[in-house]
Predict the structure.
Amino acid sequence: MFSRVVDMKRNIKTVFNKNNKRKITCLTSYSYNYTKIIDDLVDVILVGDSMGMVLYGLENTRTISDEMMIHHARAVKKAAKNSLVFFDLPYSSRFDENDIVKRVKYILRKTNCDGVKIEGNSELANVIKKLKKVNIPVMVHLGLQPQKFSSSKKFKIFGRGKRDFDKITKDALILENSGAIAILLEGIITKISKVITNLSNIPTIGIGASEFCDGQILVSEDMLGLFTEYHPKFVKKYSNLSRDIQIAVKKYVKEVNTKRFPNKKFRYD
Ligand code: KIV
């Protein structure tokens, strides 16, 4: 029993090791209870700012504040005994290196997460260097960066043009050299994810970026069929929880109305 617990507890060095034979598995979570369910099963849990859309029903990911992220990341971290927990640095309309470093340190201090994911390109190089100096692991997010869009309806796939292709590849290598521990690639063509995965010495984590990445991530609500308003091509539905919940709730309503629930078994006498 003891050795099983030791085996399951992930750490940054062993999970984000490019030489690992097995893929890195990641999912999003925003809550304590759901984290408890998946904690033993995946390597990394991301408290994504996708919560803006799938949890709060907002139009984009930009409306998540640092305080909202702290609340959710705290709950997730509390439940995660074995997996690594990363938080998404929330959107800010201004780019200020010192401010980013300050915010990351603050959120990390408040949540005790294992690392941060930041959306951005080569302009993040100095930020990553500064965070590396204080041992804060950074996963960079390249390709489709949802924080750049005011609505998910405007999302597009990146890397089809040569300029785009060259820029993403160059940015990935710059950020790796600055000290990033992983590169999340979202919504890009297969050829780029292959090139970056082959060139880079740190793992790539893909979402809509092909099977050639070193790891994969999906938004839990999407892959469980819980969020049904938006269904990108890259999402495979492993469950249909919205249907299952409706079946359960209909049964409950029917039993209450027909007085089959509650009954003797569920009451205090
Ligand atoms: O916010 C999020 O959940 C993400 C994933 C889509 C990778 O960034």
Summary: The first strand starts at residue 24 and ends at 28. Confidence is low (pLDDT under 50) at residues 1-5. Residues 243-269 form one domain.
